[in-house]
Amino acid sequence: MKICPKCKKQYDENQKFCKICGTALVEEKKKKRVGLYILIAILAIAVCTGAVVTGMVIESAAAGRVGKQNRRKQRRKERRV
Ligand SMILES: [Zn+2]
To answer: Which ranges of the chain have pLDDT less than 70?
Structure first.
């Protein structure tokens, strides 16, 4: 299916120019483009979700390390006293 970019009229594959305005017809890819946008959106959401989850895991891991270090420091202080 081909479509005129100016008047949006649809023609058969063998038609090269618009019968009304004479503009060169282009392949109609609207449906494919919508699918591609949905795919990109899903990928973007997946990447964002993955990044957030990864960030949370790294933050929690870092917090755990800091917590252990603080505990060790506190124990040292207690021994000194
Ligand atoms: Zn036209």
So the answer is: 30-32, 67-70
Q: Distance between CA atoms of 30 and 1, rounded to whole angstroms?
A: 11
From ligand 1's centre to the CA of 28, what distance in Å? 14
The model carries a pTM of: 0.36
In angstroms, the CA 5 to CA 33 distance is: 15
22 token code pair: 């004479």
How much distance in Å is there from the Cα of 37 to the middle of ligand 1?
A: 27
Q: In angstroms, what is the span from residue 59 Cα to ligand 1's centroid?
A: 58
Strand locations in 1-81 (E): 2-3, 10-11, 26-27
pLDDT digits 0-9 by tens, 20-33: 999 999 998 766 67
